[in-house]
Amino acid sequence: MAGRYAPKTVLAHLIQRRNQTYSEIVAEFVELGGTITERHLRRLASGERAGTTPQTRRTLQRLFGKPVEELLSPYVAEPAAQVVPAPAASGRITTGNEMEVLDMAASRARAFALAAQSGLGSEAMEQVYDDVRHAAQAYPQRPLPEILGQLVETQDLVFGLLESRQRPENHRQLYFLAGVTGGLLAKASHDLGNPHAALTQARTAFMCADNADHHGLRAWVRGLQSLVSYWAGNPHDSVRYAQLGAGYAEQANSTTSVWLPVSEARAWAALGNPEATRAALERAEEAWNSVHNDDLDDMGGLCTFGRNRQLYYAADALAQLPGEVEQAQRYSSQAVDAYTDQNHPEWAFGDAAGSHAAMAITRIASGELDGAADALAPVLTLPTERRINGVVHSARRVHQALRQSGRADDARELQEEIESFTRTPMQSFPR
């Protein structure tokens, strides 16, 4: 039975009134088509966590008959007895949204398949792979609030599987998946402006890559560490991480062998070293001659590095160097064009925004203030849930370029628009 403590949330109070254990609540949750761990439920009930996926919110509401905002609000004792709603009765589905119903059914089937086996079989392992692959592919294209809850739950699932008794042959695969989910959460922490949490996730992800003995994964995590350090204003660390991953990338021959040198190029540019920047960009281009996709690349999305991202990184690097304006213009134009098609598998809203910002900076350097405003316009219309850390920093660089151009008075309106944009970055999620 749930302990008789003073409940901190309405959810905890309702669970206590039901006279049930948390595991029994989780079982009912699964019966209604949801997926949640006992630890996650306890953290929600204790008020430690407020972020939930849309599916979790729907299932909680069905189970307790109250909106999630009310369930997670602080509990205030009332003299009158509260009636606890009974679990939703089975029967006719009345949501009116067939896709939601199918998602709930798929989630229920997934939970059953994983719970029904003491050791993961091939079908269950395929399901875990599919969960991680789906997160990797969705990450660059969907707002973080839509996928973060599921990503956290997936990491919790993989960690739980590693902590439980599994067949020895499954451990390497699970450590690989743990490394990928840790890397995705490192990127999520970075996108929310928390480099400390990002590097903590990345260190654990690298440990998992070691346990999986996967060179491509090791190199990929080093790339993430280089990315986090670059945007955190630590270009020397960014160079160091990129160079630390180079040996692993060479052995893997995956797309990380392109990502790492082009990441190094951005950091050298931030340090004002054009020679090292150009040399790193050349190494990145040459690396394509030996690239062979590995199983990490096959995950897709954030787990692979394509030509479009290379164009953006090159534009971002060269835009920082006063002597490379012509080359920066060429790369930024190609990058903007590459990210025009939002249906392209490589499309990523963050990289598209960065490409536009790089184009704006090159136009400022050429004295084209109206052209710079046109280039940045798609960035400044991004909704709050897409104003991730890198996007906000890219916009601030445009602001800085305007200040340094000597024509700040002529671009006052654009500067004010950038200031308004950067005042409301994505920092939290709706409950």
Short description:
InterPro entries: Lambda_DNA-bd_dom_sf. By secondary structure, the protein is mainly alpha-helical.
Q: What would you note in describing this structure?
A:
This protein is mainly alpha-helical and 431 residues long. The chain has 20 helices and no strands. The longest helix is centred in the middle third of the chain and has 24 residues, at 168-191. It comes from Kribbella aluminosa. InterPro entries: Lambda_DNA-bd_dom_sf. This is Tetratricopeptide (TPR) repeat protein.
Largest sheet: none
State the separation between the terminal residues, measured CA to CA.
Answer: 28 Å
Strand content: under 5%
Q: Write down the secondary-structure element order.
A: HHHHHHHHHHHHHHHHHHHH
- Mean pLDDT equals 85
Shape: globular
Secondary structure category: mainly alpha
Individual helix count: 20
Instruction: Write down the Rg.
Output: 24 Å
The overall strand count is 0
Protein name: Tetratricopeptide (TPR) repeat protein
Organism: Kribbella aluminosa
InterPro entries: Lambda_DNA-bd_dom_sf (IPR010982)
List keywords for this structure.
431 residues; mainly alpha; 66% helix
SSE layout and pairing:
Layout: H1 10-18, H2 22-31, H3 38-46, H4 54-64, H5 68-71, H6 98-115, H7 122-138, H8 144-163, H9 168-191, H10 195-212, H11 215-231, H12 235-252, H13 256-270, H14 274-287, H15 307-318, H16 325-338, H17 349-365, H18 369-380, H19 389-404, H20 412-422
